[in-house]
Amino acid sequence: WAAAPLSMGLLTPPTEHGQWGVPDWHPASAQLKSACEQAARFCQQEGVNIASLATMFALAEARIACTIIGCKNTQEVRRAADVACRFHHQSSLHACLSEKESKVLRQLLDPADGPFAR
To answer: Could you say which of 61, 64, 80, 99 has the lowest number of CB atoms within 10 Å?
Structure first.
């Protein structure tokens, strides 16, 4: 298995102007795009970078042998490197997450109330 944790932009934070950066050509359904935008905005509201959270989640998944990250600027390269270093020194996802990140992740993955709830 391989992973692209940012899902071609779906799991990236809104810009400083509040715009969410998913390209129009993205193949995801409108429902998935909406859920990801809701998740990204929730993370931003809580002070958590959704791209960092998604990257750590992918790095921690034992079934994923390769994680591929695309970066469009040096700021994103630095963020990805910082996340990789944080994860490298820990034994599990929850060991490298801050208390705030753990809380946000639990809320995002909540099967009843999270943005990806069915």
So the answer is: 99
